[in-house]
Amino acid sequence: MQLTAPAARRTGSRDTDGMAVASFVLGLLGLLVLNLFLGPIAIALAAIALWRGTTRPGRAYLGLTLGVADLVVLLAFMQADHSVSWSF
Questions:
Q1: What are the backbone dihedrals phi and psi of residue 9, each rounded to the nearest 5 degrees, phi first?
Q2: Full-model pTM
Q3: How confident is the model over 46-88, as pLDDT tens digits?
Q4: Torsion (CA) 29, 34, 36, 41 in degrees, nearest 10
Q5: 5: three-class secondary structure by DSSP
Q6: Deepest in the core among 12, 62, 76, 77, taking most CB within 10 A?
Q7: Backbone angles phi, psi at 33, to 5 degrees
C-alpha cells in the first residue's frame, strides 16, 4: 500500500493552465492596485506556465505582457510624482 504520490509525478496541464490564467488575472489587477507586487508575480507565473508547456499560451503571454505593463505604469507614475510610490 502506497501512501504518497510517486516521486516522478509530473505537473498536469491543469496546473499550468491555472498558472497562465492566474498570471493574466494578477497582471490585469496589477494595473489598478499593488503593481509593484502583482507585476513580478504575473511575470513569474507566465514564465513558469510557458516553460511547462501550457495549453493556453496566449493567456500566458498576455499575463506576461500585463505584468511588464504593471511595472511600466509604476515607473511612469513614479517619474511623474518624483517619489518612490504613487497614489491618486
A1: -70, 130
A2: 0.77
A3: 999 999 888 888 999 999 999 999 999 988 888 887 766 655 5
A4: -50
A5: coil
A6: 62
A7: -140, 155
Place of cell 511600466: 72
Residue 40 CB-density burial (10 A; 0-12 exposed, 13-18 middle, 19+ buried): middle
Output the nine-digit C-alpha cell for 60.
Answer: 500566458
pLDDT digits (tens, 9 = 90+) for 14-48: 788 888 999 999 999 998 888 889 999 999 999 99
Give the burial class of 28: count Cβ atoms within 10 A of its Cβ; 0-12 exposed, 13-18 middle, 19 or more buried. middle
| DSSP type of residue 4 | S
For the record, the C-alpha cell of 77 comes out as 507614475
Query: DSSP secondary structure string, 23-65?
Result: HHHHHHHHTTS-HHHHHHHHHHHHHHHHHHT-S-HHHHHHHHH
C-alpha cell of residue 43: 511575470
Amino acid at 32: L
